[in-house]
Amino acid sequence: MGELPKVLAIVGPTAVGKTAVGIRVAKELNGEIVSADARQLYRGMNVGTAKPSIEELQSVPYHLIDIVELGEYFSAGIYAEMGHKVILDLISRGKLPIIVGGSGLYFRALVDGLFTGESRSDEVRESLSAEVKNSGLEAMYEKLLKIDADYAKLISPNDEMRITRALEVYEITGKTLSESFSNQPEEPLLNSLIIGLRMERKLLISRIKERVEKMIASGLVDEVKQLLEAGYREDMQKIPTIGYNEVINYLDGKIDESRMIIDIKVNSRRYAKRQMTWFKKDERIVWIDMELEKNAAEVVIAAWRDFISDRKSR
Q: Do 87 and 209 belong together in one domain?
């Protein structure tokens, strides 16, 4: 096996500051950013996924954002394949690939690879989709909890796409996704320095609150209206991105505006907790406490230079 591609990764929960740190690091280290966000992939979902602003996208080249239409099939495996092509191209051009994002499964697929056994079936998927309609998503989530509680606790009970995908894999292979993850290749696919950003819970909750209020002020409700008018209701509900289904409930008259905002904040906090649960299991991650390190980007830059220097000295 040849030398593995060297990459820098910046991960962590929502609203912790990954984008800002990633951009500053990329400017200093001649890097380009490879997004590891499973929702920023989709075109049209901008405000609610906290995509980088136009100014941010113009300041540093970004990859794997706005590459999929809502309703189009996409998976962690496809993402990893595309991501590796991007990374090899960046390295060939003398650029540092900097993976930035908080989607644990997509990050793992890119860095370590995933179980590669045959685990897709249109027939099984259609059967599960019919079961969702007949029994309800809550019943399907309970089913997954009995089969694979470890994985179920890492995802939202409203995430139809991931719930049915996990059940599909189990029905086809007889193995849970948790078991599949444990059968990862022994060697990673990338030589990665993985930096995790974290902060004290109260501060993170405050930042989440500010982010949600900014999304509302920036036109989240209008964005969801436009997607509904374009016929994407079912597609949005199958990949429940925080903010979108809450707004749909508001527009459908099920909740008022105040309740909508509260629900988005609460669900965002829960999502951040699931993200941290996932990343805490990865012992390779070097954590930076954002409230202690006011210049987190400089800490990351120094860590990368030490990482490279250490590899060269071996």
A: yes
Please check whether residues 126 and 211 belong to one and the same domain: no
Q: What is the pTM of this model?
A: 0.83
pLDDT per residue as tens digits for the range 1-43 = 458 899 999 999 999 999 999 999 999 999 999 999 999 999 9
Both tokens of 40, joined, read 């920023």
| Residue ranges making up the domain that contains 128 | 122-181
Judge contact between 85 and 5, C-beta under 8 A.
Answer: no
Q: Are 39 and 141 in a shared domain?
A: no
Residues paired with residue 43 on neighbouring β-strands, in sequence order: none
Distance CA 78, CA 106 (A): 10
Q: Are residues 236 and 305 in the same domain?
A: yes
pLDDT at site 74: 85
Residue 231 lies in a domain: yes
Q: Give per-residue pLDDT as tens, 232-288.
A: 998 888 887 899 999 999 999 999 999 999 999 999 999 999 999 999 989 999 999
Rg of the chain's alpha carbons, rounded to an integer? Answer: 20
Return the SS3 of 116. coil
Compute the distance between CA of residue 234 and CA of residue 39 in angstroms, rounded to an integer: 16
Same-domain pairing of 256 and 283: yes
Write the burial class of residue 229 (CB in 10 Å: 0-12 exposed, 13-18 middle, 19+ buried).
exposed
Provide the 3-class DSSP secondary structure of residue 194.
Answer: strand
Domain-embedded: residue 1: no
Last residue of a domain, one of 160, 181, 202: 181
Residue 164, number of CB atoms within 10 A of its CB: 21
For residue 160, what are the CA distances in angstroms to 139, 172, 186, 237? 11, 18, 31, 8
Determine the Cα angle at 65 with ends 33 and 262, to 5°: 105
* Three-class SS state of 197: strand
For the chain, percent of residues with pLDDT exceeding 70:
94
* 104 and 216 fall within a common domain: yes
Task: Kindly state the tokens that stand for 314.
Answer: 């071996």
